[in-house]
Amino acid sequence: MKLPRLPLLFAATALSLLPLQPVHAQRALQGDLQQQMSTEEFTAAGLHKLDAGELRALNLWLQGKVEQATTSALESAREEGRQEVIVKNRGFLSFGSNEPIQAGLEGEFRGFAKGRQYTLDNGQVWEQTDTASVSGVRKHAPQVRITPGLMNVWYLQVDGLNTRAKVQRVK
What is the DSSP string of 106-131? Predict the structure, then answer.
């Protein structure tokens, strides 16, 4: 079985670059408001009325808020990226969660047969690896449930049928 190494490599590279973003954000926000704003903007905001201590306190508060927002945004982006990698790679090895995959089967289901491929409406393609069979069945775009078993084994079950087939993800 050939594993998709490119998506995993891309995800690992993207996740490794995330810690560099706060450094860039901090560089852009270092200094005080007087340095960040034009003289007209500084005066229009009424900041010229503050004494040095008040301006320093405002700058520290603002830098803390920016740092907090940056950290929060990065944590959120990191989690979104992690979830995206998990969803895209479910079924390859033991990647992701143990929750079943529920989706619709594209096209018509005509029973189980070894070597048959099943394309889901989420873009995943699964191939049957065992000899489970069901014949004389025709269902258009039925809902399916793919559940993980032990040792990286997955089982596909079609709604309304008691038989399930052992499958492996091929795309």
Answer: SSEE----TT-EEEBTTS-EEEE-S-
Tens digits of residue pLDDT in 54-98: 889 998 998 888 888 888 888 888 888 877 776 666 766 555 667
Residue 23, pLDDT > 50, answer: no
- pTM of this structure: 0.50
Q: Which amino acid is at 127?
A: E
Contact in structure between 128 and 115 (CB atoms under 8 Å): yes
Whether 110 contacts 29, CB under 8 Å? no
**Other CB atoms within 10 Å distance of the CB of residue 11:** 17
Contacts of 80 (CB under 8 A, 6+ apart): none
Distance of CA 117 to the CA centre of its chain: 25
Determine contact, residues 154/91, Cβ cutoff 8 Å: yes
How big is the chain, counted in residues? 171
